[in-house]
Amino acid sequence: MTFSSDATTAAGGEDHLWTKRADGSAPAVLQLHQSRSIVESLWSPDANWLIYGTFSIQAGVGDILAMQVGADTVPVPLAATPFSEWSPALYPHGRWLAYTSTETGRPEIYVVPFPNAGRAKWPISTSGGTEPTWSHRGDELFYRDGAGHMVAAEVKTTPTFALHRSTVLFSATGFAADFFHRQYAVASDDRRFLMIRAVGGGAPDKLVVVENWFEELKARDNGRKP
Question: Looking at the predicted structure, is the pLDDT value of residue 175 above 80?
Fold first, then answer.
């Protein structure tokens, strides 16, 4: 797994990318060092590309870049403009990249080809958009709009990319949201969402890992059926 950490800097310094075996059998190694903090990262399906987002307190310097592992150490800009770009989400087969940009003055969702992002760009949202993620089939792009609704944008990918239609699914205003980190997960059938609801009481947060939770959820659903 790859994650952001400021382990090599003083407190409050920049975050860099580290990679560590998921089973914990070896120490984490420094994957990528940048002069700006790296707040997001993901690997392409073929593990040839490491895509990451940078962040700074200065306006317009959040960019999305990629590094071709083992081929070149020079980052390739995917979305690097005077505006801020974040939340990269790669198509299941790696052909398209969705992300959020403030180029209109508010966050909106866009899609570009990957890795040749400069060839074209398609706007997806029109009333605000954050936290994009692709359906497992690749025919929909989910995101949260400016009013807090979850939206499904149906797309066509042949002969070229095109937005077909967008449908509001439900209100997600009562669930956790974050501009830079997606706060929900989509089931493998693309019909259910796992979201985080805030709970009062002042108890400290803790991280809980549940293995095979979709299978457990299916078993409980079957148990309630007559």
Answer: yes
List, for residues 14-48, the tens digit of each pLDDT value.
566 777 777 777 777 767 666 667 778 888 999 89
Instruction: Write down the pLDDT at residue 225.
Output: 43
* Per-position DSSP letters for the chain, written without gaps between them: -EEEE-TTS-TT---EEEE--TT--S--EEEE--SSEEEEEEE-TTS-EEEEEEE-SSTT---EEEEETTT--SPEEEE-SSS-EEEEEE-TTSSEEEEEE-TTSS-EEEEEESS-GGG--EE--SS-EEEEEE-SSSSEEEEEETTSEEEEEEEE-SSS-EEEEEEEEEE-TTB---SSS--EEE-TTSS-EEE-B---S-PPP-----TTHHHHHHHHHHHH--
Name the residue among 82, 91, 78 with its Cα closest to residue 132: 91
Who wins on pLDDT, 20 or 177? 177
* The residue type at 196: I
**First-to-final CA distance of the chain:** 42
Cis peptide bond upstream of 27, omega within 30: no
pTM: 0.79
Q: How far apart are CA 197 and CA 212, in angstroms?
A: 21
What is d(CA 136, CA 116) in angstroms, rounded to the nearest whole number?
22
Sequence length of the chain is 226
